[in-house]
Amino acid sequence: MNKIREMISLREINGISDYVNLYKDLEEEIKKGKFQSTKKIKIALLSSFTINGIKETLFVKCCEIGIIPDFYVGDYNQYAQEILDPSSGLYKFEPDLVIIFVDTRAILGDQYFLPYQISDEQRKSLADEKLNEIRVFIEKIKVNSDAKILLHNFEVPLYSALGILENKQEFGFIESIEALNTGLREAVKHDGQAFIFDYDSFCSGIGKQNIVDYKMYYLGDIRLSLQYVPELCNEYTAYIKPLMSITRKCIVLDLDNTLWGGIVGEDGLEGIKLGPTPEGRPFWEFQKYLLSLFNRGIILAINSKNNVDDALEVLRKHPNMVLKEEHFAAIQINWNDKISNMKAIAEELNIGMDSLAFVDDDKSNREMVRKALPEALVVELPEDPSLYLTALMKINDFNTLQITEEDKKKGKMYAEQRKRTELRKTTTDITEHLKNLEMVVTIERADSFNIPRISQLTQKTNQFNMTTRRYMEEDIEKFSNDDNFIVVSVTVEDKFGDNGITGVAIIEKGDDKWRIDTFLLSCRIIGRKVEETLLAYILKEAEKEKAKLLIGEFITTKKNAPAKDFYKNNGFNLIKKEDGKELWGYNVKKEYTPPSFIKVAVKENKT
Amino acid sequence: MKRLKAILSRVLEIDENTITDETSPDNVENWDSFNGLMLVSELEKDFNVKFTMDEVTSVKNVLDIKKSLRKHGIELHE
Fold first, then answer.
1. Does the beta-carbon distance from A220 to B33 stay under 8 Å?
2. Domain ranges, residue A595
3. A8 Cα to chain B: minimum distance (Å)
4. What pLDDT was estimated at residue A416?
5. Measured between CB atoms, which of B38, B51, B56 is closest to A16?
6. Which residues does A contribute to its contact with B (CB < 8 Å)?
7. pLDDT at A379 over 50
């Protein structure tokens, strides 16, 4: 896949025509089998007008992030038929993502130009009718497909025939479109499958005066000026990335001239620029934004060439330092090169290099990291610190399709982890260390509260994952309602804090033989014997229901080496081994002793 | 002219050296209506001009593009 990125990076891309031409070349190379990727996505584009250029541009944007896309473009203004007919080309295509781009002109028809030929009441019922129509579309797609749905909302026009009196109406033209947008947002607010693409905001961002090139609109029915198509596609990738599990989890930050202005080793604690002054404010607000990312669960880390005492003094004592020591999950302040520090951070946090984003004001550092660690995302910081904030805000790599309670706490939990590791450094005996953690493990049946997180863990956990089976929320729900299955989540608490739900097991019950379908632990808690506690629970359940044999599967992947010997080390016997898949068996009658230092609480709140 | 030829070559995927005043949708396979509009978009961006709808519809070949650009005050050095 790096080959494909290389090909793209060699091309100069100035405008839409470069995307279109590059698309042709890429498609040809892919057809020839020159590029391959395990990440593939099928995208259906439905729209109310000519959307030439979007498919081509989005194709290139997907390739840039290592995804090979396949497209289905609905016929001109045929979106309604495509959606409503279960045997349409749309459903035959079996899309993973359906993008619906219907514009305000199309949905309102003549009312767009002559809104005041109908009464306020009529306008109200028209808006309701349109909203219902779209809701039906969403429901129809959900019935016929598992695809995620990305639905454009509507551009609120800048002009009204009523001029300055527009907002004095009972239910005016502008208000009717705003109401439609609000209704759409409400309709999918709690929907895990459908998402609103805020096209109205997108248009505002570019400037509604520029969004349509009227000459092109009349000549070619082009309703988004071609020069903004790449930007639109860029916004789409914010949804595609998490859908394909491409999500950055951690921002690795430089210190001097990145988190504050100046160099602490030279300017001293009082000399650096940080706080409510013209030179200090860009850094101050940059830190505030980073803190808001931390609060949504992004992990922060430091990678700085500095004297550790100087730097820590700023973290601890500077009055305007927004980010404190407790916000950083890993701190590498030393004279090592940035690359080794990146590796150390990834190792310490137990996450892949592809989860890291690197932020450094120094161009040569960025170049070095980009070359040596192509999986890491290197953020292009502009020269001018006043532009740092907007540069970071534009990065759309931190998205997830759902935020669970665990996510929000994640930044904090990783910082607590750093303290645990520090404790480990002081206690040499591992059992002693684990005892000192005073762990409490809660094992809980799946219910509506933990199902989103359980599904998310099956999607995201790569290392301690025996079978790496990915399940959607709907799948987990099915399992949990099926009496032949047990689905449990595992929550780990210790004296440093709550790790949240960090483990999952799915067991299929048979008469004699029970099968462990899924057994996973988040990398945060690997090596703390929680897995043994969980296994003991499963064995006890099996014994209760008179099962004889517990079968564990292990399916080898590139990443799950940490789980490889788990069954072997816990008294299972190998039954069969073929094509990277192993079957292990445990005689339920055989006694199993879980670690005594972990307290266990079992909650049987089966729904 | 170099700049115009470069844009034409890039958008229409043709060799710069083959471009003449007579180059037109009739003799360039790639020059369909959508590519024609992309060409307009790229020319407007690159030369920082805005063509009228009339200018766009009346363009029959490269010579016409040059004439329109000249009308907008763009001197093409040939």
1. yes
2. 427-603
3. 16
4. 81
5. B38
6. 14-18, 20-21, 52-53, 213, 215-216, 218-220, 222, 225-227
7. yes
Q: Is residue B77, in this structure, part of any structural domain at all?
A: no
Task: State how far residue B56 is from chain A, nearest Cα, in angstroms.
Answer: 9
The verdict on residue A461 lying in a domain is yes
- Cβ within 8 Å, pair A53-B34: yes
Q: Do A21 and B13 touch (CB under 8 A)?
A: yes
- In-domain check, residue A417: no
- Contact at 8 Å (CB) between A332 and A285? no
Same domain? A594 vs A535: yes
- Domain presence at residue B50: yes
First to last CA, chain B: 5
Q: Is residue A355 part of a domain?
A: yes
For residue range A476-527, list pLDDT tens digits in order.
999 999 999 999 999 998 887 788 899 999 999 988 999 999 999 987 788 7
Per the structure, how many domains does chain B have?
1
- What number of C-beta contacts closer than 8 Å exist between A and B? 48
Contact present, A17 and A53 (Cβ < 8 Å): no
**Comparing C-alpha atoms, which of A177, A313, A331, A189 is closest to residue A250?**
A331
Nearest-Cα residue of chain A relative to residue B53: A215
Is the sign of the CA dihedral A236, A242, A244, A250 positive or negative? positive
Percent of chain A with pLDDT over 70: 98
Structural domain for B35, as ranges: 2-71
Domain boundary among A206, A223, A243: A243
Which CATH number fits the domain that encloses residue B66? 1.10.1200.10
List Cβ neighbours of A563 (8 Å cut-off, separation of 6 or more).
Answer: A463, A464, A465, A466, A520, A554
The per-residue pLDDT for range A198-228, each reduced to its tens digit, is 999 999 999 999 999 999 999 988 899 999 9
